[in-house]
């Protein structure tokens, strides 16, 4: 079912509810398994304890975390990635245009699996402050450690995170129980929950069939594993794209602040990479994203500087209310305001764009299978939470599987998997609702909404307990 809702000032929002029909599941089964004796399948197929479908950031982190866990050291683990082998990361080359703001919990995961030093030795940018403000009202919020000691986030290239994971996975002495196969696209699945057997069958594009006790879907937002689990999803197509680029700053500086301004078309963020370079994530309409990609470099630079510095028309009601609030709480907004560094060039070929949407699976597990990362949940990048939620799933799932193995239970035992689901839902849902709410709140110039969000932002910035709560939730 697909419903198109037109909300005042919000533009069209497409809500899509999907459920795989039994007939589709049947047709997949029919294609590969008609007249197949499943016991013969297992005896002829290669068997693993755990198969992870998808070697993106979250799937590779899970493979390393499982292999590093002592209780699971006798388990045979296979990571299947449809793409060719990862090309590696070279610190001498230009920064990649895909970067992530990583929170404290993700850094803890990397430390626990021995990947953090590897990244730090190459290039990680420590962010000491974040400033977020509204183009329609100038309401602003700053996040920082009181003494500028702790990071509010770290900016890491996605390729460097992958490189750190694949470097570990390639070390056979370090992790003999895990194997990686590239160019290994999963074409079809027959999950144990459907067959009643104790194992799932994984059918690859090259015709090979594998079996496993536990199937993990880390195969991204269009997850085949999720579809085969017959799980409902709630999804919203934002009809926006995230334009990314690496840009050169006009003047070298400390560059330890992450900046984000909410424009009427969506948020634009400038994330520090080095003293002279920053990374852009600009969420905007599909037509505008195309323009930003196609325009000459000088025009892009001009448009980006305008996005951060241009004065937008402000509603008198909002201006008056903000002035009243500022005088009541004794705050001079001009003293508090900082401005981002100006940009003077965009690095050649660094511009690209990605579709933006929201997705949440109604369940993350079934007997013999579990979902992690974008396969289970996808959020707008405005709060830099997507992959952090995926890394949080990794930590929760490994704990639960170690508990199951320690107790002598089957890895696919739903009683254990459900604990993973409960713990992850408790962490993910409030953040996902918050991020989706922010996207909705900032997608309009409707005066009452601008007024409400501006007063809310300014008050949150003023009252430390509320702000600290946000920081704790989002920054780990
Ligand atoms: C513009 C932008 C900026 C972002 N910034 C941030 C940020 O600052 N902080 C943050 O936390 N998050 C951020 N995110 C979100 C983050 O990028 C995602 O949450 C994260 O990449 C999801 O990782 P994943 O491994 O779950 O899925 P994916 O990256 O989608 O990986 C899935 C993998 O599975 C493989 N695969 C798929 N199907 C199959 C199959 N059938 N067989 C075998 N393999 C298969 C794919 O090839 C892929 O490698 C951002 C997202 C965007 C778009």
From TrEMBL:
Organism annotation: Ceratitis capitata
Sorted UniProt keywords: FAD, Flavoprotein, Membrane, Mitochondrion, Mitochondrion inner membrane, Monooxygenase, Oxidoreductase, Transit peptide, Ubiquinone, Ubiquinone biosynthesis
Cofactor(s) needed for function: FAD
Oligomer and partners: Component of a multi-subunit COQ enzyme complex.
Any one Gene Ontology cellular component term annotated for this protein: extrinsic component of mitochondrial inner membrane
Annotated signal sequence range: none
Protein name: Ubiquinone biosynthesis monooxygenase COQ6, mitochondrial
Family recorded in the similarity comment: Belongs to the UbiH/COQ6 family.
Limits of the FAD-binding domain: 49-288, 370-405
Topology relative to the membrane: Peripheral membrane protein
Reaction equation(s) it catalyzes: a 2-methoxy-6-(all-trans-polyprenyl)phenol + 2 reduced [2Fe-2S]-[ferredoxin] + O2 + 2 H(+) = a 2-methoxy-6-(all-trans-polyprenyl)benzene-1,4-diol + 2 oxidized [2Fe-2S]-[ferredoxin] + H2O; a 4-hydroxy-3-(all-trans-polyprenyl)benzoate + 2 reduced [2Fe-2S]-[ferredoxin] + O2 + 2 H(+) = a 3,4-dihydroxy-5-(all-trans-polyprenyl)benzoate + 2 oxidized [2Fe-2S]-[ferredoxin] + H2O
Membrane-spanning intervals of the chain: none
Protein task: FAD-dependent monooxygenase required for two non-consecutive steps during ubiquinone biosynthesis. Required for the C5-ring hydroxylation during ubiquinone biosynthesis by catalyzing the hydroxylation of 4-hydroxy-3-(all-trans-polyprenyl)benzoic acid to 3,4-dihydroxy-5-(all-trans-polyprenyl)benzoic acid. Also acts downstream of coq4, for the C1-hydroxylation during ubiquinone biosynthesis by catalyzing the hydroxylation of 2-methoxy-6-(all-trans-polyprenyl)phenol to 2-methoxy-6-(all-trans-polyprenyl)benzene-1,4-diol.
EC number: 1.14.15.45, 1.14.15.46
């Amino acid at each position: 079912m697909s419903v198109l809702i037109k909300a005042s000032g919000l533009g069209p929002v497409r809500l899509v509810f999907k459920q795989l029909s039994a007939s589709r599941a049947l047709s997949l089964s029919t294609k590969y398994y008609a007249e197949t004796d499943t016991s013969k399948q297992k005896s002829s197929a290669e068997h693993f304890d755990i198969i992870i479908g998808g070697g993106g950031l979250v799937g590779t982190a899970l493979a390393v975390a499982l292999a590093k866990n002592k209780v699971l050291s006798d388990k045979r683990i296979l990571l299947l990635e449809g793409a060719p082998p990862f090309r590696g990361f070279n610190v001498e080359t230009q920064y990649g245009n895909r970067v992530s703001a990583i929170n404290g919990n993700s850094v803890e995961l990397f430390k626990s699996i021995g990947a953090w030093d590897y990244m730090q030795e190459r290039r990680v940018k420590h962010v000491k402050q974040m400033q977020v403000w509204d183009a329609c009202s100038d309401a602003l919020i700053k996040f920082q450690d009181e003494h500028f000691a702790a990071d509010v986030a770290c900016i890491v290239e996605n390729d460097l995170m992958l490189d750190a994971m694949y470097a570990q996975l390639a070390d056979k002495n370090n992790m003999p129980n895990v194997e990686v196969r590239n160019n290994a696209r999963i074409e079809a699945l027959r999950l144990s929950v459907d067959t009643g057997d104790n194992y799932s069958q994984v059918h690859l594009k090259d015709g090979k069939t594998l079996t496993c006790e536990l199937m993990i879907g880390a195969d991204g937002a269009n997850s085949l594993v999720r579809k085969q689990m017959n799980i409902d999803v709630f999804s919203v197509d934002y009809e926006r794209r995230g334009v990314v680029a690496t840009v050169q700053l006009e003047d070298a500086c400390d560059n330890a602040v992450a900046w984000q301004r909410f424009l009427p078309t969506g948020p634009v963020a400038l994330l520090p990479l080095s003293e002279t370079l920053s990374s852009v994530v600009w969420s905007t309409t599909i037509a505008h994203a195309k323009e930003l990609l196609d325009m000459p470099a000088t025009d892009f630079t001009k448009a980006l500087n305008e996005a951060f510095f241009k004065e937008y028309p402000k509603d008198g009601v909002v201006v008056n209310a903000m002035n009243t609030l500022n005088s009541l709480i004794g705050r001079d907004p001009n003293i508090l305001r900082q401005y981002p560094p100006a940009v003077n060039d965009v690095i050649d070929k660094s511009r690209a764009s990605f579709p933006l949407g929201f997705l949440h699976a109604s369940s993350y597990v079934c007997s013999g299978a579990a979902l992690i990362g974008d396969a289970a949940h996808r959020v707008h990048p405005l709060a830099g939470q997507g992959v952090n939620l995926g890394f949080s799933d990794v930590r929760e799932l490994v704990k639960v599987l170690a508990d199951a193995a320690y107790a002598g239970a089957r890895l696919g035992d739903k009683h254990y998997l459900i604990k993973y689901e409960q713990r992850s839902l408790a962490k993910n849902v409030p953040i996902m609702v918050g991020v989706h709410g922010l996207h909705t709140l900032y997608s309009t110039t409707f005066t009452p909404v601008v007024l409400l969000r501006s007063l809310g932002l300014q008050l949150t910035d003023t009252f430390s307990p509320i702000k600290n709560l946000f920081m704790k939730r989002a920054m780990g």
